[in-house]
Design goal:
By secondary structure, the protein is mostly beta strands. Helices cover 5% and strands 19% of the residues. The protein has one helix spanning 43-61, and strands at residues 189-191, 194-195, 252-259, 264-270, 272-278, 282-287, 296-303, 308-316, 320-327, 339-348.
Length: 350
């Protein structure tokens, strides 16, 4: 790279020493024809040529130190390096009108569109968004696009989201069309007995003195939480203790009202398709979604003065089960003449 000169070709800067030549003509030097062979160079015209050259060089010298307005799109094949020397200043400021895009960045075939590194001071932030939509990341490709990729090294967080004020939440996912999951989290398998959780939620602050309760770590406003995959190993940390997974969730529960006239109704419940009384002593519960087999655990409670027990009578199937009610003295109860409230819950695999 050539060395930048330090001396400017200053010329004819005193007023009246320049004369701009005409655009065209035949008898004198013009911008169209230039100098003629053997022509005596007019002093003021030559001063103009050398002086205007100096003016342009002077403008170019100050170019990098002055603000400029670009009216056309610029292309930089070697990239752009921006460094702000002013404390607390903005390196790149972009303002657009209407629905325009402030900054559109595209990485190479194996490259990265945006790579941001936070500073090393207290509380550095790599990317901060403030707007109706602070940060919107969209992945588009013919194959499997990754819209947002966050990776933390050492002991930091890959993505830290904090809510302030009266907002619905610090982090929100919203599905629109297609069959894609709105939020897909995948953990990393470390040691065989210690898997890293894809989602770690912790309520950091305990309830202040006088508060009725501590704020929950997870709240599901609408919808469901679905568990898939295999159960954790008993030796895994955490294992079956202090953990929630599919096999530990009740699959069926309900409360039944037997009116003593041969009728039974479901007061409330989940995964109960129907209930019915047959042969005076048998009550059948049919599940809306059956178990994978007849191997599941079911517990009953009977609400009535005295001591009564509801017991599965052996007719237990993947999609339904039957029970009888017995008194402590071993008397089978006639459900057509005796009223009961029976509650039940079932655990198993579906």
């Amino acid at each position: 790279m050539a060395t930048k000169p330090t001396t400017l070709p200053r010329w004819a800067t005193t007023g009246g020493r320049r004369l701009e030549p005409p655009e065209n003509g035949t008898t004198t030097a013009t911008k169209d024809n230039g100098w003629k062979e053997g022509q005596r160079l007019p002093v003021r015209l030559m001063n103009w040529l050398q002086g205007i050259t100096y003016d342009w060089i002077l403008w170019l010298q100050a170019f990098e130190d002055e603000a400029h307005t670009w009216t056309e799109t610029q292309t930089f094949e070697k990239g752009i390096g921006v460094s702000t020397t002013t404390a607390d200043g903005t390196s790149v400021g972009v303002a657009v009108n209407g629905a325009g895009v402030g900054i559109a960045l595209s990485g190479g075939a194996e490259g990265i569109g945006v790579y941001s590194i936070a500073g090393s001071g207290t509380g550095p932030i790599a990317i901060s968004g403030r707007a109706i939509t602070g940060l919107a990341v969209t992945g588009e490709s013919l194959g499997s696009a990754v819209a947002g990729f966050f990776q933390a090294s050492s002991s930091g967080e890959a993505l830290y989201v904090q809510s302030m004020g009266s907002v619905r939440g610090a982090f929100m996912t919203h599905g629109t069309t297609g069959n894609a999951h709105t939020c897909y989290l995948e953990g990393y398998a470390g040691a065989a007995t210690n898997l890293f959780a894809p989602l770690y939620v912790e309520q950091m602050y305990s309830a202040p003195s006088g508060w009725a309760k501590r704020a929950p770590a997870i709240v599901v406003g609408q919808g469901t939480i679905v568990f898939t995959g295999t159960d954790p190993a008993a030796t895994q940390d955490p294992g079956n203790d202090n953990a929630i997974f599919g096999a530990l969730i009740p699959k069926v529960w309900g409360c039944l009202s037997i009116d003593g006239n041969g009728n039974v109704t479901t007061l409330d419940g989940c995964n109960v398709a129907s209930v019915a009384i047959s042969l005076n002593t048998i009550c059948t519960i049919t599940f809306a979604r059956p178990f994978s087999s007849a191997i599941y655990a079911m517990v009953f409670t009977v609400e009535k003065a005295g001591n009564y027990n509801a017991v599965c009578n052996g007719s237990k199937f993947a999609g339904s089960t039957q029970f009888n009610i017995w008194s402590d003295n071993g008397t089978l109860q006639n459900l057509d003449i005796n009223a009961f409230i029976v509650c039940f819950v079932a655990f198993g695999r579906q």
